[in-house]
């Protein structure tokens, strides 16, 4: 059967050195379908020099200098997040192939890649829109990508002392968090850092954000869920006169007093999902709900 020509941009984890068989399987599958392959430069040379894999790439690109019909992320959720930060507002659907262990975003196993690629050519898949949190500062601009698919974390730095985070919602004062930090999470990121700090699990597509303190001084502080149309304003006091802001795990130092404004980004990330794959099935599987460990 003759397939239409599709362009795929390939990203991957360069630290997974024992996955060459799975990578070769993906490349062979795309080649059999006549796909036009674009490869991130760092990943291309990892495959070529480290894995000794011959990659028939139509283009090798850096940064966000690419266009494609689909993006394939080879790795775990961290690799998926990095790919999303390169796709940005291009709105290219991303397929996550899970080369690691736990994966909510990268939920396609290498064994299923042929079926998934065939499903793409047969239009037998769905695309989910996932909200992003955009961060703005009133001081020096952030050096990296300013949007988070998972979460934005405000964290202490260089000292064992807590920080004070003054939080307002739509201009109304909420509270001052005395804590090691604060995690503002999307529904996508609710099963990541937020969950490890006692935050709620939020079903993707729910139009909310959550705010969860990291090791709060007061036991009265609890996570809060708010509409994703809200504008969140944060300012920080710290004994070290600086703090960290981590956007999907990419951290930068900020000066004390910097005003941070968080709101929903004007665009979403598109995630490719196999037909018949349900979020609650993934949740039960990844969280091992119902497993009897005895």
Automatic annotation (TrEMBL):
Where is this gene product found? Cytoplasm
- Function, please? Involved in the regulation of the intracellular balance of NAD and NADP, and is a key enzyme in the biosynthesis of NADP. Catalyzes specifically the phosphorylation on 2'-hydroxyl of the adenosine moiety of NAD to yield NADP.
Q: Which organism is it from?
A: Prevotella aff. ruminicola Tc2-24
Mind telling me what this protein is named?
A: NAD kinase
Q: Which residues bind NAD(+)?
A: 77-78, 82, 150-151, 180, 191-196, 215
Per the record, the major location class is cytoplasm
This protein's source sits in the domain of life called Bacteria
| SUPFAM superfamilies given in the database record | NAD kinase/diacylglycerol kinase-like (SSF111331)
Q: Which GO terms describe its cellular component?
A: cytoplasm
Name the needed cofactors.
Answer: a divalent metal cation
Q: Name one GO molecular function term.
A: ATP binding
Q: Which reaction does it catalyse?
A: NAD(+) + ATP = ADP + NADP(+) + H(+)
Q: Which HAMAP family match?
A: NAD_kinase
EC number in record: 2.7.1.23
Residues of the active site: 77
Q: What is this enzyme's class at the first EC digit?
A: transferase
To which protein family does this belong? Belongs to the NAD kinase family.
Write down the InterPro entries for this protein, in alphabetical order: ATP-NAD_kinase_N, ATP-NAD_kinase_PpnK-typ_C, NAD/diacylglycerol_kinase_sf, NADK
UniProt keywords (A-Z) are: ATP-binding, Cytoplasm, Kinase, NAD, NADP, Nucleotide-binding, Transferase
A GO BP term here is:
NADP+ biosynthetic process
Gene3D superfamilies assigned: Probable inorganic polyphosphate/atp-NAD kinase, domain 1, Probable inorganic polyphosphate/atp-NAD kinase, domain 2
Looking up Pfam families in the UniProt record yields: NAD_kinase, NAD_kinase_C
